[in-house]
Design brief:
The protein has about 260 residues and is an alpha+beta fold. The chain contains five helices and 14 strands. The protein folds into two domains: about 90 residues; about 110 residues, Glucose Permease (Domain IIA) (Distorted Sandwich). Helix 2 packs antiparallel against helix 3.
């Protein structure tokens, strides 16, 4: 319906119907226009400060929990002050961000070079360490052969003889268990070592025996001292290798096992 009346009356009615919009050529009250913005800023300020204070409280409680009774930790107090200051600055500038609770935890003290890599390999390597391969070893420090395996004086000489003055240390040629340690007829003082798989070694004519029956010995262990006991014509070491109860030629057997005495 068209409006009737004077121009002044029409203008006044328009202003009364829209009091916060346009009054002639002037904007409405600044307080009314800015009220929504001010309300939003206050809410954001409240949220930022509240979050910062809550974070600072958590840091303070966590730090205090790890300290003994007494004065507060200066580092924790400084961290709380930094958080509060940053919260105030964020609210003023409108960024709405908060700092981290505190500095990153200091790394552990540096380990010596290669130590960390060694630990990593210990934890993750799928290969288990294996013991070193056992090898046959000479029975004497100085090996001098004086008599070989074979026929002698109408009978078979079942071993080899090594020159060795009385008291010379005699060593186990291979690891095993002492089967015999004592006097044995023409062998005199005899040591027999069982190496398993039917293999045995004999050490005869000793002046002293330094092991006992049932003892476990390793290759190179001092088992006796050379001598001139039993059926012997001078101090020496008589050495034999038996396989499945039968004597075999020692030099060939030892060479096939990786020990050459030639």
């Amino acid at each position: 319906m068209p409006q009737t009346g004077s121009a002044d009356e029409i203008t006044m009615r328009r202003h009364a119907a829209r009091p916060h919009r346009v009054r002639g050529q002037h904007r409405a009250s600044w307080a009314a226009e800015l009220a929504p913005l001010v309300d939003g800023t206050q809410r954001r300020y409240t949220a930022v400060v509240g979050s910062a204070v809550a974070g600072a409280s958590i840091v303070a409680m966590a730090t205090a929990g790890g300290l003994p009774d007494g004065d507060p930790d200066p580092a924790a107090s400084e961290a709380v002050a930094d958080i509060a200051a940053h919260a105030e600055e964020s609210a003023r500038t409108g960024t709405g961000t908060a700092p981290r609770a505190g500095p990153a935890e200091a790394p552990d003290e540096a380990e010596p070079p290669g130590r960390a890599e060694s630990k990593r390999l210990e934890r993750h390597s799928p290969v288990a360490a294996q013991p070193a391969e056992i090898k046959w070893m000479p029975m004497l420090d100085d090996v001098t052969i004086t008599s070989l395996f074979g026929p002698r004086w109408g009978r078979n000489h079942n071993g080899i003889d090594f020159s060795a003055p009385t008291g010379t240390p005699v060593y186990a040629a291979y690891s095993g268990t002492v089967e015999h340690a004592g006097w044995e007829s023409g062998f005199g003082n005899l040591v027999i070592i069982d190496h398993g798989d039917g293999v045995e070694t004999y050490y005869a004519h000793n002046s002293e025996i330094r092991v006992y029956e049932g003892q476990r010995v390793e290759a190179g262990a001092h088992i006796s001292d050379a001598g001139n006991t039993g059926f012997s014509f001078g101090s020496h070491l008589h050495f034999e290798v038996h396989v499945d109860g039968e004597p075999v030629e020692p030099l060939g057997y030892l060479e096939s096992a990786g020990l050459s005495l030639s």
